[in-house]
UniProtKB/TrEMBL annotation:
One of its GO terms (molecular function) is 4 iron, 4 sulfur cluster binding. Signal peptide: none annotated. This is 4Fe-4S ferredoxin-type domain-containing protein. The keyword 4Fe-4S applies. One of its GO terms (cellular component) is plasma membrane. InterPro entries: 4Fe4S_Fe-S-bd, 4Fe4S_Fe_S_CS, Electron_Trans/Redox. Residues 152-181, 183-210 form the 4Fe-4S ferredoxin-type domain. PROSITE patterns: 4FE4S_FER_1 (PS00198), 4FE4S_FER_2 (PS51379). The chain crosses the membrane at residues 7-27, 33-52, 87-106, 112-128. Keywords: 4Fe-4S, Electron transport, Iron, Iron-sulfur, Membrane, Metal-binding, Transmembrane, Transmembrane helix, Transport. It comes from the Bacteria.
């Protein structure tokens, strides 16, 4: 599939799920979205973090923000070094799970998913996407655990790759690492957003079966 067709398909899928998200919100039945996330979580074992790049409403809402900021040449803050650790990341996940339990036990009428989505947009207005995707999103943390060794994922073909670093610059979560013989994509962090594939001048990046 060509980059243009893949990009068009991704937009169609994203918009479709975003409409579904708002439909469930209007129906006051947003809890059903957790079923979709559950499917994405299991799917991460085989497809990687496909949910993040193609389904998640947060990522879909980030796209127009990114487009507007690029046009206006607005630069956002980088992830503060103090938050770049697993302790912070897993603490956020534990806090989120405790809040879910508390909402259930005390029957609090609040939709955590809605507030988290709104909070993610506010965070991304100020900080680069990496901060939310890699260190703050509780859903992303779970998906990173399930997508450590997926069956399919983004892969860099070493012979064509010239280590130009373009893919690293466009990756929203810094999931691409430099090795002695080329570039390597960390599947546990990769959102499968295809930005690296679309920007690669040597066409050395593809979504395929991983060895």
């Amino acid at each position: 599939m060509t980059n243009r067709k893949a990009a068009a398909l991704r937009v169609i899928v994203e918009v479709g799920f975003l409409f579904l998200f708002f439909f469930l919100l209007r129906s006051r039945d947003l809890q059903k979205w957790f079923l979709i996330f559950g499917i994405g979580l299991v799917g991460a074992l085989f497809l990687g973090r496909f949910y993040c790049g193609w389904i998640c409403p947060m990522e879909t809402l980030f796209r127009p923000i990114n487009w507007l900021y690029s046009k206006l040449r607005v630069k956002r803050l980088k992830t503060p070094a103090i938050f770049k650790n697993n302790v912070f990341r897993w603490s956020i996940l534990v806090l989120f799970l405790l809040l879910m339990v508390a909402v259930r036990i005390f029957k609090i009428k609040v939709n955590l998913l809605l507030y988290i989505t709104a909070f993610s947009v506010l965070i991304t207005l100020v900080f680069e996407e990496e901060f939310w995707h890699r260190y703050m999103c509780p859903f992303g943390t779970l998906l990173s655990l399930f997508s450590r060794k997926p069956l399919f994922g983004m892969k860099v073909e070493k012979p064509p790759c010239v280590s130009c670093g373009i893919c690293q610059n466009v990756c929203p979560v810094s999931a691409i690492e430099t090795e002695e013989d080329g570039m390597k994509i960390d599947t546990s962090e990769c959102l499968v957003c295809l930005k690296c594939k679309e920007s690669c001048p040597k066409i050395s990046i593809k979504y395929s079966v991983l060895k």
